[in-house]
UniProtKB/TrEMBL annotation:
InterPro entries: WlaTC/HtrL_glycosyltransf. Keywords: Signal. It comes from Sphaeroforma arctica JP610. Residues 1-24 form the signal peptide. This is Uncharacterized protein.
């Protein structure tokens, strides 16, 4: 679909898709299997076969499949009164993403053989892999201003917050469904929504009656678990270890937090960027840029989250957009032990540091591919080492170690004359420090003496 068509056609559909995982483990005796796997990747991606196995090498010299493949199922949905097909099957196969995907997946695959020498620390191992990926793929990065529409992306699963006992983190899932309906789904912009099939069915009637420009991709929690492989097992070992969760005692905030008490909290939040990558590879609405927004983001105003207000987002999506705030010295950051986290950030222990927000981020396809590959190497390594925070820690490490990939907005600078939260400029109100970029988008930026003030990042 061309961008010009997006505003003219009400695409009111809920998708069904089947995610097929092929997990194969091989023992590496030499590089023969590696070359064969890489050849299979190239052959499969270019030949249009239904499925193709994609492998990576981990530090134990075994192989495992990299990513779920959503395969096409013959459409068989009925036709509603509007003439729209009730059930539309979205195929995510080995050809989606085209040559760009081949280039980045090949670089990621090849990089897994680097940084495995004895005596290297974890940061050096990851840098060896990621610097190789950057050396092979940086030439594909397009830093021009993204024109046209932006596809919004989100996902929603019931992680069990409603069942938490005596917890400040308890939330009924209905609150999230209501927020999804009131905020994300009401934006007229092109939208991709990842949901378990159960909830896709629950919102079907609402979607057909009220929602435009939406595609829903059913995705189950167990499918994400399988994609993570050993990394998911690492998450569970860490979160159930009292040495990690009880750093402030059994009644401390971390012990009561979602990343500690809910099995699949980090399964989902750390997978956000990979949802964005799948949406960008499918590119159903044929847009140049893609923005992930939490399903119930408190700063999301659907009546103002429209194409003409995307200027500040697009300015930052010339590379990869992230927003951050400054976090004071502490024993941990979102559960990631300070001493180790500061090593990843290349800062002295107990330093004030930037923490990227996980509620909104995005970019053009090339930047998404690059950051997703870098992010994955970091994530898998620190989980293997026994350290865990949330997706915000992984984004923060990525920003500090590879700043050339990002255009980051400092949420503390909602107005150019402010260096702290919740300041106001003429005709402009900053509703919260993590809403800064939304406020700039909705209000066109603050004004002084009747003129728009240009955003200036002061750190």
């Amino acid at each position: 679909m061309r961008p010009a068509q997006v505003g003219n056609i009400a695409l009111k559909a809920v998708f069904c898709a089947c995610v097929v995982y092929t997990i194969t483990h091989l023992t590496q005796k030499d590089n023969t299997e590696a070359r064969d796997a890489l050849n299979a990747l190239h052959s499969g991606l270019h030949s249009g076969v239904e499925t193709v196995q994609r492998y990576v090498i981990d530090t134990q010299n075994t192989y495992q499949s990299r990513e779920p493949i959503i395969s096409t199922i013959p459409a068989g949905g009925s036709v509603n009164q509007a003439g729209l097909t009730d059930t539309y099957y979205l195929g995510y196969g080995p050809n989606d993403g085209g040559d760009l995907r081949v280039k980045f997946e090949t670089a990621y695959y090849e990089a897994q053989g680097l940084g495995n020498e004895e005596g290297l620390d974890s940061r050096s191992r990851v840098d060896a892999k990621n610097n190789y990926i950057l050396s092979k793929t940086s030439k594909y990065i397009d830093e021009s201003y993204p024109t046209g529409e932006v596809t919004l992306v989100t996902g929603l699963w019931d992680l069990g917050r409603g069942g938490l006992v005596k917890s400040d983190f308890k939330r009924p899932f209905s609150q999230y469904i209501d927020g999804l309906k009131a905020n994300f789904l009401m934006s007229p912009m092109p939208k991709i929504l990842f949901l378990p099939r159960e909830f896709a069915e629950q919102i079907r009637e609402f979607v057909f009656e009220k929602v435009v420009n939406l595609r829903v991709i059913p995705l189950e929690l167990d499918q994400m678990e399988k994609w993570y492989g050993d990394a998911h097992e690492d998450m569970q070992k860490i979160r159930t270890d009292p040495k990690w969760s009880d750093i402030y005692g059994k009644d401390g905030w971390l012990a009561k937090s979602p990343q500690s008490t809910l099995k699949n909290y980090n399964t989902v939040v750390m997978y956000k960027i990979f949802m964005l990558r799948i949406a960008a590879r499918l590119n159903h609405f044929d847009t140049k840029s893609f923005l992930f927004v939490d399903a119930k983001h408190m700063c999301m105003d659907p009546h103002r989250m429209i194409t003409k207000n995307m200027g500040i987002f697009k300015e930052h999506m010339q590379k990869f957009l992230t927003t951050h705030f400054f976090y004071g010295p502490s024993g941990e950051t979102h559960g990631f032990v300070n001493a180790e986290f500061m090593k990843w950030l290349n800062l002295p222990e107990h330093s004030q540091h930037k923490v990227c927000r996980g509620g909104v981020f995005g970019g053009k396809r090339e930047s998404i591919e690059m950051v997703a590959a870098v992010y994955e190497n970091i994530m898998r390594q620190h989980l293997k080492d026994g350290y865990m925070g949330t997706e915000e820690n992984v984004f923060s490490i990525s920003l500090y170690r590879y700043p050339q990939l990002f255009m980051a907005m400092n949420n503390d600078n909602a107005c150019v004359e402010s260096t702290s939260q919740d300041k106001t400029c003429e005709g402009f109100t900053n509703t919260a420090n993590f809403c800064a970029i939304f406020d700039w988008a909705y209000h066109g930026g603050p004004k002084r003496d009747g003129k728009r003030v240009e955003y200036q990042d002061r750190g």
